[in-house]
Amino acid sequence: MPSVATREDMSTRLEEVLRQRFAFHCDNAEAYGSEFADLWRATADHALGGKLVRPRLLLDIHRALTPDTGDEPDLAAVDIAAHIELLHYAFLLHDDVIDGDLTRRKRPNLIGALAAGIPGATEEDSLHWARSSAILMGDLLLSAAILGFARADVPSHARTRLLDLVEQTILETVAGEHTDVALSHGIIPSDVDTVLAMSVYKTATYSFSLPLRAAALLAGSSVAAEQTLEDVGRRLGLAYQLQDDLLCVFGDHRAHGKDAFSDLREGKETAIIAFARATDAWPQISPRFGAVDLTLHEATAMRDLLRGCGAERFVVGLIGEQLDGVYALLSEAERAGQITSDAARAILVSASRLEGRQV
Amino acid sequence: MPSVATREDMSTRLEEVLRQRFAFHCDNAEAYGSEFADLWRATADHALGGKLVRPRLLLDIHRALTPDTGDEPDLAAVDIAAHIELLHYAFLLHDDVIDGDLTRRKRPNLIGALAAGIPGATEEDSLHWARSSAILMGDLLLSAAILGFARADVPSHARTRLLDLVEQTILETVAGEHTDVALSHGIIPSDVDTVLAMSVYKTATYSFSLPLRAAALLAGSSVAAEQTLEDVGRRLGLAYQLQDDLLCVFGDHRAHGKDAFSDLREGKETAIIAFARATDAWPQISPRFGAVDLTLHEATAMRDLLRGCGAERFVVGLIGEQLDGVYALLSEAERAGQITSDAARAILVSASRLEGRQV
C-alpha cells in the first residue's frame, strides 16, 4: 500500500525538519549566552512533543490533491507544514501568558517549567521570568513561521498567495484571541454570535483553514478551490471547537481525558454558556459559574441545568449544521471540478480523525 | 538646496506611508468587532507620535549612498523605513509589558491608556486587559514588519538579504531583551561585558545596524559595505546607549528631560553599575540601589559614589572607544571604496544629531 507508506514518510520527514529547525536555533542561540540557549532547548522539548495535527492535515490534503506525484514527499509542503507547527506553538505561548496557564494536559507547560527552574526566587519573580521568556520566545517562533512562508521554495505567484494567507491567519487568530479576552472581562457582552465568531477566528482559521488552504495552494489548486477550503476549514474548526466544548461539560471525563468541568470552573465563554445566558435557567447557573472552587456536586447540577435549558441540544444542532455545510461545500466543489472526489474524501477522513480529540 | 528639500520630501512621504498603513489596518479591523478596531486606533495614536529616528536614519544614509537619483524619494527605501518603525513599536509594546511600564516620557503609553479605558474594573482586570492587548498588538506589528520586508519591491537577491537582515535583527533584539530580564532577576551575574553585549543586542542592532544595513542593501552596496555598516551601527548604538545611561545619572535633568535618577531607582543594570559592582564603593551603593523610594538626597550621594569609584570616567572612556572605532571603520571603508566620503560624512552627521537624545 504505497499511499500509507508515503503518509508515514511525510510524517517522519516533518518530524525531522522540525527537529533540525530547533537544533539549528539551539546551536545559534549559544552565541547569545547560556540562558538564551537553555530557553531554546526547553522550548524544543515542549514544542516537539505535540501531535502535529495541523501539519499532518496539510500533508494529507496536499497528497490527496496531488495524487500523481509518486512516493516522494513534496519538500515545499513539508516545509510549510513545519512552519505551521511553529506558528501554532507561538500562539500557544502567548495564549498561555494571557490566560495565566502553567499546565497543559495536566503537565507543566513551558512557562510552568521555566518558573520552577529558579531555586530560591519568589513566586512573583519566577512567574515574571517565565512569562517574559514566553513572550520573547513567542515572538521568535512567530517570526520564524512568517519567514518560513516568505522563503518557501515556490514560484513567486504562489509565494505572494502564501504571504497573504499567513497574514490573514495571524490577523484573524489575534482578533479572535482579543475578543476572547474582552469576553472574559465582560468588556463585550457574551452572545451566541459573538462567541461563534470568536471561535472561528481564534481556532478554526489557523488550525483548519490555514492547513487546508496551504495544501491547495501548494498543490497548484485554483484560488476558487482555496476559497472553498477556507470555508470548509472554518466550519470543520467550529464543529471541532463546539464538540470540545460539549465534551468538557457533558462528556465522559474518564474517556476523553480532559479536566472535568474545567470550562465551568474557569468561566469560559463558550457557545453553551452564551445560549444559556439568554434562557430562564441563567439566574440559577450564574452565581457559581467561573468559581475556582466549584465542587463536583455543583458542577454536575450546573451541567443538568445546561442540559435542561436546551444548551446541549442547541450546540449539537450547531455542529450538525457545520458538518452539513462541509458536505455541501465539498459536493459543490467536486461538481464544479475544483477538487477531485479523492480530495473531498480525504478531507472527510482527516476530519473524522480529529473528531472528539483535543488538538 | 535640492538635497534639503528631498530630505523633507522623504520624511513627509514616510509619515504618509505610516498613516496610510495604520488607516488600512484600522479599517480592516472593523470586521472583527469594535473593540479590536478601537485597539488599532489607539495604537495608531501612540505609534504615530514618535520621532521616527530609525526610519529617518535609513533614509538619510540611503540618500547619501545613492547621490545621483534626483529628487524623487526611493519608494522601496521609504517602505522599508516605515516597516522598521513598526518593528520598533512592536518591540516597545512587548518591552513595556515585560517591564510593567505604564508611561513613556511622563505620558501614559498604550498600556496605560488602555488600562484607564475600562471604568469600574479592578486595577488587576484593567492591567490584564491592557497588557493582553499589548501582547497581541505587538504580534500584529511584528508580523506586519516582517511581511513588509518579505513583500519589498526589490530584486529577489535583495529580498533574500532583507529577510536575513530582519531575521538576525529580531533574534538579537530578543536575545538582548532576554539577557536584560535575566540580569534584572539576578539569574545571570552583572558584569561589564555582559551588560555591554546586552546593550548592543537589545538596542544597537535594531536601532542603528538595521537602518544602516537596510540603507546599504537598498542602495545596491556590496555585502562588505553592509557588514561594515553593521559594525558601525553596533558601535554608534552602544555609544548612544552609554551616553543615555550617563545622562540619567550624571546629566542635567532639567536639560535632557529624563526622569532624574530613574535608572538608580529602577535598579537598572547599566555599564555604570556593572563597573561599580567590581569596586570597593559597591557596599555603600548597593543597599539603596533599586529602591523605589530613593530620595533625591540619597540619589545625589549615590551619584557621587559612582563618580568617585571611577564608573563615570570608565563609561566616558568606553564611548570614546566606540566613536574612535566608528571613525576608523568609516575611513577604512572609504579607502577600500566600499562607501563614498559623502556617505561616511552623512553617517557622522546623523550620529551627531542623535547624540544625547532619547531615541
Automatic annotation (TrEMBL), chains A, B:
One of its GO terms (molecular function) is (2E,6E)-farnesyl diphosphate synthase activity. This is (2E,6E)-farnesyl diphosphate synthase. The keyword Protein biosynthesis does not apply. Its cofactor is Mg(2+). Belongs to the FPP/GGPP synthase family. Keywords: Magnesium, Metal-binding, Transferase. PANTHER family: GERANYLGERANYL PYROPHOSPHATE SYNTHASE (PTHR12001), SHORT CHAIN ISOPRENYL DIPHOSPHATE SYNTHASE (PTHR12001:SF85). Pfam families: polyprenyl_synt (PF00348). Its EC number is 2.5.1.10.
